[in-house]
Design a protein that fits this description.
Organism: Tetrahymena thermophila (strain SB210)
Number of strands: 4
Oligomer: single chain
Protein name: RAP domain protein
Pfam family, one: RAP
Largest sheet: 4 strands, mixed
Shape: globular
Radius of gyration: 33 Å
Number of helices: 33
Strand order of the largest sheet: 1-2-3-4
Length: about 725
């Protein structure tokens, strides 16, 4: 490519018609750039139009071969065209999506196809250019992922296979582009692809000072995407390399920026593999320090601050899962408590900047990490209820718009067919122009409607996350909470479930707007929060219409879902109409089969309690199954006059910042005491582990004395 000379510019300026300019440019094979023309606004505008023309000319047979010929001679020209396409996409992603489905997309595929048809690997420098081309193709795919890219994927495989053969010559940039393409296109295993991974490992060892953490984290992101397109064995080998990157990042922890920290969180979250606890500590520390340094707890309306706040909430959601996975969900990393407190303050101060979906996710993340703040959850609940509830009318409106669009497109196609049959009618008539404008308006309306519905539609999914959090918080037992607010929230939820149930057919709702785990959790939570007969109708709808509808084949209940539904089934036996008898028997049978497959896992804590009960000469049994409810220790009714159940509850049965039992314990107690006439007590691990052997015996004696008095009082009342 050469700079424009004066004579070239003068000649270009002298051409008055567009066709003359285009012909002149084609003759000169577009060997120009406008970067060195001083103070020439007209020429800069002309340059921009030429860039667009480079794309538009592909539709014109007179110019297509000229450009293809240019590209075949120099693959760097193809790189420049792809870069222009990328820029146009970033300017208006929605508009370009429509264009790519027609003109540019077909031409773009044609151009790349022609290039690869004549591509020869023995030409020096071509491999690097081709790696860059497939990398740009994958970027375009990322932006317009709704399109079919099968041809580009096949072309990418050709280049990747050659890169594998020449892996020793690849530098970090080319290697990064190869791995990014593999991850974006989810390319299945290539022969000898492990050579690329070995090369990356070698480069990491050889060029530690030269490789930026930013690029390495992008490589890791691509590796994770690639891994989850493979089987388990292949996946593990790739994730081992991801772990090496984690170790590299940990070594460079002092230079981690906030943006790096967010990327690491995302990659760890996506990989679902082993997490280095020390690296997790660093991530939380960095996030915590960033909040304090920027004083993000202090309310601000600055757009930059609001963006950073949302980034922190995004990271919080990932950290909550990472902590859970790191500890196998068995205990808390208490060093994170201050970080979660900072996040709670941020949510409290910026609550109005989050969408219903974000607020639902925030509530669920607090549940997952066991952070208790009942006032904040009520504030989130009330905030969601203030959003306008979109969905029902918008669904009807969307259907009408789609029908109109289809009708207009059929008319447009009809006119096109008539024009092709009658070649003399080249001039597009007024009706055709009107139809095209009408089509654009309909598409704009559909896009606006889709954005509205996507942001606000059906807060039910967010609301059921809130009700699950309230259930886990056992919020009915919190004396500091205004129960009228809880009642108001539940009443609103019941109304929405009823409206949802009446308005839509099953297949129109659950697959898109309700996640299975949220349905089962909300059913469970409503049982925990039950304080009236009002729960019957909503639970009936959730169970019979969303989970076990004969027309609904999309749901597959896992062990956690079955456990939740089974407990709800036992609790709801007091209301026989909620769960039909046959359905109840099916739930019972499914759950029984799963329980039989479970391995018994008895903690040392449980063994220790039993050992001390034995010392008191009280008969007891360890790990007993009561109608598929597993309990730790049972003392038969012959001893106290009533059967006593003791559960030894570890730290995860309580909240990290409050000694409050979670709702799961409450519901279990309700079922065992109200419907099985048992006495249910729990022994917290945080109390037991502070005692020596003598104190433990004294602890149990006081517990059993209190139980005797309770049983005697109950018998007198009867």
């Amino acid at each position: 490519m050469i700079n424009l000379g004066k004579s070239f510019i003068q000649r270009l300026r002298s051409l008055k018609s567009v066709s003359q300019s285009r012909h002149f440019l084609c003759q000169n094979n577009f060997r120009f750039n406008f970067s060195n023309i001083p103070d020439a606004e007209e020429d800069i505008q002309r340059a921009e139009s030429i860039n667009k023309f480079r794309l538009q000319m592909l539709e014109d047979p007179k110019y297509k071969d000229c450009l293809v010929d240019l590209v075949l001679k120099n693959p760097n020209q193809l790189n420049k065209i792809l870069k222009q396409i990328e820029n146009l996409i970033h300017q208006d992603k929605y508009a370009m999506a429509e264009v790519f489905e027609t003109k540019y997309f077909r031409s773009y595929v044609y151009l790349i196809d022609q290039f690869f048809r004549t591509y020869k690997s023995d030409i020096d420098g071509q491999l690097n250019a081709c790696i860059s081309i497939i990398y740009k193709m994958s970027h375009i795919y990322n932006d317009l992922g709704n399109l079919t890219f099968q041809k580009q994927i096949l072309l990418s495989k050709r280049v990747l296979n050659e890169a594998i053969q020449n892996h020793e010559a690849l530098q970090f940039k080319q290697l990064f582009q190869c791995l990014y393409t593999m991850g974006t296109f989810r390319i299945k295993k290539l022969e000898n692809e492990e050579r690329l991974f070995i090369r990356l490992k070698d480069l990491m060892q050889q060029q530690k000072s030269e490789i930026s953490i930013d690029e390495l984290l992008d490589v890791q992101s691509s590796l994770v995407k690639t891994a989850f397109a493979r089987n388990q064995q292949e996946r593990n080998s790739i994730l081992i390399l991801s772990d090496l990157i984690n170790n590299y990042v940990y070594e460079k922890r002092e230079s981690l920026t906030f943006e790096n920290t967010i990327k690491v969180c995302q990659n760890l979250y996506s990989s679902q593999s082993y997490i280095n606890k020390h690296l997790l500590d660093i991530l939380v520390k960095n996030l915590q320090e960033d909040i304090i340094q920027k004083n993000l707890e202090q309310r601000s309306d600055s757009q930059d601050i609001l963006r950073q706040v949302k980034q922190h909430i995004f990271a919080f959601g990932q950290i909550s899962l990472l902590e859970h996975n790191t500890t196998d969900g068995l205990y808390y990393i208490y060093a994170f408590d201050e970080y979660y407190k900072l996040i709670a303050n941020i949510v409290n101060n910026y609550i109005d900047v989050f969408s219903p979906k974000q607020l639902g996710n925030i509530a669920f993340s607090f549940t997952r990490v066991g952070y208790y703040d009942s006032n904040l959850i009520l504030k989130i609940a009330n905030r969601i209820l203030k959003f306008e509830f979109y969905g029902f009318d918008e669904n009807d409106k969307g259907t009408q718009l789609k029908n109109k669009l289809k009708e207009v497109q059929n008319k447009i196609q009809q006119i096109k067919n008539e024009q092709s049959e009658n070649y003399s009618a080249k001039q597009i008539n007024e009706e055709f122009k009107k139809l095209q404008n009408h089509e654009k308006r309909i598409k704009t309306s559909l896009r606006a409607l889709s954005n509205t519905v996507q942001k606000n539609f059906n807060h039910l999914d967010a609301l059921v996350k809130i009700v699950h959090t309230m259930g886990q918080y056992n919020i009915r037992q919190d004396k500091a909470v205004d129960q009228k607010q809880v009642d108001h929230f539940l009443k609103s939820l019941y109304s929405i479930i009823e409206l949802f149930s009446l308005k839509f057919k099953q297949e129109q709702t659950t697959g898109i707007h309700l996640e299975l785990k949220n349905i089962t959790r909300s059913i469970w939570a409503l049982c925990v929060l039950d304080s009236s007969e009002n729960i019957v109708a909503p639970i009936h709808s959730l169970i019979n219409q969303f989970l076990f509808n004969e027309e609904n084949t999309q749901y597959s209940l896992n062990m956690a879902d079955l456990s939740i539904i089974y407990l709800a089934y036992l609790y709801l036996q007091k209301n026989p109409g909620v769960i039909p008898k046959q359905l109840g028997l099916l739930i019972q049978d499914l759950y029984s089969q799963q329980v039989l497959k479970q391995k018994k896992q008895i903690s040392q804590f449980c063994y220790d309690v039993k050992k001390h009960i034995d010392k008191l000469n009280i008969p007891n049994s360890l790990e007993v199954n009561l109608d598929n409810i597993l309990v730790d220790i049972i003392i038969p009714d012959q001893h106290f006059g009533k059967q006593v159940i003791i559960d030894t509850n570890g730290y995860m049965h309580y909240f990290r910042n409050e000694s409050v039992e979670k709702g799961s314990t409450t519901l279990k107690q309700k079922i065992l005491e109200q419907y099985y006439q048992n006495i249910y007590v729990t022994i917290p691990q945080f109390e037991w582990e502070l005692l020596d052997s003598k104190d433990k015996l004294e602890y149990l004696q006081k517990l059993f004395t209190a139980l005797k008095l309770r049983i005697q009082n109950e018998q007198k009342q009867q």
